[in-house]
Specification:
By secondary structure, the protein is an alpha/beta fold. It has eight helices and eleven strands. The chain has helices at about 15-30, 75-80, 105-120, 140-150, 165-175, 200-215, 235-250, 265-270, and strands at about 1-10, 35-40, 40-45, 65-70, 85-90, 130, 150-155, 180-185, 185-190, 220-225, 255.
């Protein structure tokens, strides 16, 4: 059996319910769990290095609040609670640019704890999985995450950023050529890039997904809901690729889709 985890990033208080419903109803109806990396208290002014606003801010709708906690959107939280196929994981705090590259241990600990409190206040279970915005974490951030979460899902790991006590485990992982490893009780997962992305060729996505799944025991598939709704009209060809992926995952008897919460030592191994 090969395991797949679906991770959609950037759900936040600005996310329209109809966007998630349009994308993920075929997954939910097939019993395929969807992990939503959810921003606890989204910043409404985050800009990328080139000055462009973050993609999900297209749905800001003129708000002047500097941040919006997830429970300020009661329609969204009610929808998520009503559909248990969604699994909420913590995605940063405000989603400020590179907010977890911060070298201050006190600051990153406060952001992690405050983010968890906001998600719990919205009625969600205490998150056990963390996803850092932009896949960037400082050494203090990595230490703080490992103390608080059972899973860290990120794109890659760099030796120079890791706590020194992690170096032997990282080097052993590299020697074995594995995608995933552990430090203490925390599973450290990497993923093969955002294959389901509007910035890649659509006709190459599903073949590449199949290839990646065949290469490893556990594959994390990452996408971003707002990429399917960049313009006034939904990107129908891109949505079709996502739904074809749902068909493949549901119908391949050698593939099982699981939430992060079901990770075990056996499905972590390559």
């Amino acid at each position: 059996m090969r395991y797949v985890i679906i991770r959609d990033d950037d759900t936040n208080a600005l996310t329209p319910v109809e966007c998630l419903e349009r994308l993920y109803r075929p997954f939910l109806d097939r019993g395929l769990p969807v992990n939503l990396a959810t921003i606890p208290d989204v910043a409404t002014g985050t800009k990328l290095p080139d000055g462009r606003p973050e993609g999900f801010l297209r749905f800001r709708n003129g708000t002047t609040e500097p941040t919006l906690p997830i429970d300020s959107n009661q329609e969204l939280t009610a929808y998520l609670h009503a559909n248990p196929g969604y699994h909420i994981v913590q995605h940063g705090f405000h989603h400020d640019y590179l907010e977890f590259e911060n070298p201050c241990a006190k600051t990153v600990a406060e952001r992690l704890d405050r983010g968890r409190e906001i998600l719990e206040r919205a009625g969600f279970a205490a998150p056990e999985t963390f996803v850092a915005p932009y896949d960037k974490l400082s050494r203090p951030s990595l230490n703080a995450v490992a103390k608080r979460f059972k899973v860290l899902s990120t794109g890659w790991f760099e030796l120079r950023r890791l706590p020194y006590s992690w170096w032997p485990g990282y080097l052993f992982k590299k020697l074995r050529g594995t995608a995933h490893w552990r430090i203490g009780h925390t599973a450290l997962l990497s993923h093969p890039g955002c294959i389901l992305s509007c910035f890649r060729k659509y006709d190459e996505a599903l073949p590449e997904i199949k290839r990646q799944i065949k290469q490893r025991h556990l594959t994390v598939l990452v996408t971003h809901w707002w990429e399917y709704f960049r313009d006034p009209q939904p990107d129908e060809p891109f949505i079709r690729v996502l739904h074809q992926t749902a068909d493949y995952l549901a119908n391949d008897p050698e593939v099982k889709v699981i939430p992060f919460s079901e990770l075990t030592a056996s499905n972590l191994s390559n």
